[in-house]
Structure formats: C-alpha cells, structure tokens
Design brief:
The protein is mainly α. It has two domains: 86 residues; 66 residues. It is built from one helix and no strands.
Amino acid sequence: MSTNKKYNKLKEKSQNIHDSLLHEINKTNSKNKKIISKQINELSNEIKDKYLLMIKEMDKKIKSKKEEINNLKKKMSELNKLTNAVNQEKFLNEIKEIKNQTVKMFKEKLKKIESFKENAILVYDKEFEKLNKKCDKTMEEAKKEIDESFSTK
C-alpha cells in the first residue's frame, strides 16, 4: 500500500498545484479585467471629451457660418432692392418703347386697311359692273330666246 499512499500523495499534490495555478490564473484574469476595464473607461472618457470638444467647435463654426450667411442675405436683399429699382426703371422704359411700337404698328395697319378698303371698293365696283353687264347680256339673250320661241309658235 505504500505505492497507493505515494500515488494518493502525488495526486493530492498535483491537485493542490492545479488548484493553486487555477487560483493564480483566475486572480490574474480578474486583475487584467479590472485593468482593461479601467483603461477602456479612461479611453472612453477621453474619446467622449474629445467628441464633446469637437461638437462645441463645430457648433461655433456653424454659428459663425450662419452669421456669415445672414450677412450675405442682408447684402443680397440690399442688392436686390437696388436691382429692382433699376429693373423697374428699365421695365418702364421697355413698356414705353413697346407702346410706341404698338401704336406705330396699329397706325400702319390702319393705313393698309384704308388703302385695302379703297382698292376693294374699286375692285368690287369693277366686278359689279362686269357682273351687271354679264347679267344684262344674259337677260337680253334670254329675252331673245323667249321672243323667238313665242314667234315660232
């Protein structure tokens, strides 16, 4: 039994060493987790601080850009007012020019209509005379035919 005792002692020693190593591993693992967790928290806080700082800087830049845009809008508004004043004057001048051209065009059209009327009256009078002569001639021929038809009977 002495081997059995030795075996049990060795087995017990082995188990103790195993337990001791397992305990050390768990202890080291726990320490490492704490260290890593602490480092992660520190890094997270650092990143958060940098992020907040960047956001503040961006907000400042956005605010300054908004002010620039508002200033540009004011300047554009002033420029538009000046442009509108110039455009209104230009527009009025263009309307006057269009009115003058329209009046001139209507006068020319009236002259053409008057001359057309005069020419049309002359043409219609000539055509009317031709038609009257033709009608008279046709009537004369019809009378002759009627007279001839009665005289032959």
